[in-house]
Amino acid sequence: MRKIILITTCIFCLNIQLQSEETKPSLDCTKTVRPSFPAKIVRMNHLNSTQKVGDRLEAGQIAGTMSALPEVVSPLFESQYRKAEQLYAEKKFDEVITILEPTVKVEKRNPFLWNLYARALYAAKRKKESFLAYQTLLSINDADETYNEDGSPNLVIIDVWFLEAYWKVSSIYLDQGEYAKSIFYNRKMLDIVTFANKQYDPNNMIYNVTALSYLAEAYYFLNLKEPNNYYACETLKLDPNNQYVLQFLL
């Protein structure tokens, strides 16, 4: 009787193992297609475009060059801003916040002050406050964006001076479980960096691996297999040993 029980138990374990192997998601990177960006019209601000209105771009085809940043970004707080930049580079984020907090209350529509302030809050792990600061920044930079009656984007504004802001906002939306918004803002940054940029070198832009894996994660929770697989494949192309993205395969 004991031998029969042992044999039965082993067969049961084998069945579980086989079922587990059968249900494991597979990934075929030969058939993935880059999902289209969800907008009818895209306008890139602060870009000296080499394209005509209505032109379509292929991957690797340069869209233009970024306009030069202004030499003076704040009429009232230039010295404070430059000091805050230096402190940010030294990772003294709390000091940056202390310097910039009063400036954004005066120059309420200055995107440079808001951007550095939001970056410092994000780096200091004060995500809720950072999110509010970034929302203010986007309300300034992307004020001309329009949406269709169903809520889908019509005119999308991408300010190439502040691409990092889209990425930071996207990561906060992902933490909040707002996956569609996370995808939208992630792609506002990533598509410009990788799609229409002839100088793009993924080996020198490691943060893009994280951005790609976050897109795979967001599409996973929306249960959208094709874009999920595409961004999982793109992640693994840049980082073949990436384990994070493997958690989120459909």
Automatic annotation (TrEMBL):
Gene3D superfamilies: Tetratricopeptide repeat domain (1.25.40.10). SUPFAM superfamilies: TPR-like (SSF48452). This is Tetratricopeptide repeat protein.
